[in-house]
Amino acid sequence: MKTGAWADHWTRRARAEGWRSRAVYKLRELDRRERLFGRGGRIVDLGAAPGGWSQYAARKVAPGGRVVAIDIEPMEPIKGVEVVQGDIADTAVVADLRRALGGPADAVLSDLAPKLSGNRDRDQAVSMELAAMALEAALELLRPGGVFVTKLFQGAGFEEFVATARAGLRKARLRTPAASRKASRETYLVGRT
């Protein structure tokens, strides 16, 4: 199947099933393999727009759960999700996030990705910086035994980041969901504190 047709399959499926993005299938597969969510859980979704991951997480932790989504881009409201617009690098935004969460997080999800510049080396460096910010936020926000999921792109800085994450987390493994494009360097690190 051609890449365009493949992408259209996931996009069409997401629309037909009421999801905001095709990325939901990546998170769903990771959840099925790693058991990321429990009823009543507190979830942080970094880089949340357009909201597919937040939608999925809200359904998984209901009733009684809390999902706080953060993005620098505006995001349409989602039932069961509190949206914080801001930059995770801003300490005031992190304080807002902590207040909205109401306690330690059970999971911190990061689908953060840079706005692509066309310069592969620069984009890779920014991607690794975003992953490092997500890891720092996760280590600050997660309860012991909490789950951290972050998108990574294989390239410069990848191995170093994985080593750093493994040093800070109790366990961490790399997963590449079926919904990721075969030609993509995208993978996900799933770890627990």
Describe the structure.
This protein is α/β, with parallel strands linked by helices and 193 residues long. It has one domain: Rossmann fold, CATH 3.40.50.150. Helices cover 41% and strands 24% of the residues. It contains 6 helices and 7 strands. Strand 1, helix 3 and strand 2 form a beta-alpha-beta unit. The radius of gyration is 16 Å and the shape is globular. The N and C termini lie far apart (39 Å). The mean pLDDT is 90.
Topology overview:
Blueprint: H1 3-16, H2 24-34, E1 42-46, H3 52-61, E2 66-71, E3 81-85, H4 91-101, E4 105-110, H5 120-141, E5 142-153, H6 158-168, E6 171-175, E7 186-192
Short description:
It contains six helices and seven strands, in the order ααβαββαβαβαββ. With 193 residues, it is an alpha/beta fold.
